[in-house]
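Problem 3 from the worked examples.
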Amino acid sequence: MNKALFVCMVALVVVVGHVAVTEAVECNIMDLTDCMPAFTSGKQPTEECCKKLKEQEPCFCGYMDDPIFRRYFNSPEAKKVEDTCKIPAPKC
């Protein structure tokens, strides 16, 4: 293998590894406290709520595995929040 090809492959591995690390999401339900009024009383979700939901989207199925949080994600208000924030319903 020539040296230039080897350098390109190493650079690609570094870039791909960096992208994977920067896309990692820390699932923390407490980050969604701004959304509680929208999920519990049907109030309009705030811009911050929508931003946090979009960040936490990969975590939804994990949250739905917990019976305490499942009721919020399966509530009629959740559908309104999903529509308002333009977030697809989780498919778990």
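Problem 4, a separate protein:
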Amino acid sequence: MKIRVYFYSHKTYKWKMFYKSYRNILLLITIFLLNNNSINSLTQTAELQCGIFNDEILDQFIEEEIQQGFPGAALSITQYGKVLKQKVYGYSLKYNENGSIIDQPQLLTLYTMFDLASLTKMYATNYALMQLVSQGKVNVNDPVIKYIPQYHGCNPENECREARLVKDLLTHTAGYVSSVYFYDPKKVSADLYSQNKIRTEEIIETKLGFQRPRGDDQLPVYSDIDYMLLGLIVEHVSGLSIDQYVKLNIYQPLGLTHTSFNPLDTVNYEKSNFAATELNGNTRNSTIDFPHIRTYVLQGQVHDEKSFYSMNGLSGHAGLFSNLHDMTILTQLMLNNGIYKNIQFWNQTVQDLFLTPYSPDPTYGLGWRLNYNKSLSWFGLHASNKAFGHTGWTGTCTVIDPKCSLTITLLTNKRHTPCINGVFDGEKYETGKYGKIMTLVYEAMQLNEQQCCQTTPVNTGCRSFMLNHFHFLLISICFVLYRFFTIL
């Protein structure tokens, strides 16, 4: 009897160990599947999952323009969470400060970082604000003074700061001029001159007047001042500088390693890691002068004068650097409605709010530029009316098209060319105007707005949608079996 009991206990022990082992294996499989879920992250692929991708027409066009004199470009294309193309063309450094081609021009690489210029407005300031709005820390309908208490006072025309709302800044309808030359004492009055970040902030918050009224019926006038102020709102609300906020709350959680402000201030980078911009600093071929102006080839320093001289490179309107890899993730985050690798940065409601067309000019959302009425040439001929994005003065552009589940990032250094009579040679090329490249991307993929509307990953044979659902099914089965073995 004792032997029988002993034998039964031993058998039971072996079965329990069997159940426990399989339970642990299933748990590991489930964790693996969850951590490798491709629903809201990017994966690499060498082929288009839906139809034909004739990317040779893109390569041929851009390479021909490089041969003709365009300095350099980097292109990334994703669809349905798959990286279809990441390629660079031309040079990161081609000219010296005299406008002569250097003996050994430096080639672009996939890791080369670009001065994003006004893409900073979207991928730093807007992302920070979308997150803060989602957290209930900022309301776009609030007056600016709620977040910056010293923002008060009126023009002689009785245009008052107290009346300005956060959304007025986002839609460029607050009434500010397009730009102010804070850094040049010859172009501003003494009380507006500043080459110091703290003083510039004080000027913007308490002294700078308005060019026109605000109001919901005002047409937007694109202004850097709006986004300089929005960057200050992020800093006042969070208690962090704009660079630290996005680094800690957005870039690090996304796993970005080549996106930052003032990158040369760290030991991680050197000049050769960056695409160069203007040949003679900010002098436009020695035709402009002001105190402390740079005269050397700019490489790794923000080109924008207000950002560099007046804001120490830390501003809501310009100053961010990034590369193709990181920009591909940043654009995908919008396509995923604020979620990446199961981390939610903002919710769908907030994203919809920021992408709502502004009635008097529906090419504006809250910061984002919209292809709503197809009037912006840089979207190209085929982007859907739901596409949105932004451009940057240095030669950068992103287009995000939810109807096609498509992102396009085009980074160029078109300003790294001789400047004659105030015009950069790089401006004459189609690559630096963006629209032709965007058009070629859609044509290479045989996409147009009608196809994007009617096509889904399922009925075009795309595997990504099916794989994601199969992925979910596997996770569900593993979980059920895990629970079964746990009960046993």
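Solution to problem 4. Confidence is low (pLDDT under 50) at residues 1-15, 34-39, 453-470. The first helix runs from residue 2 to 35.
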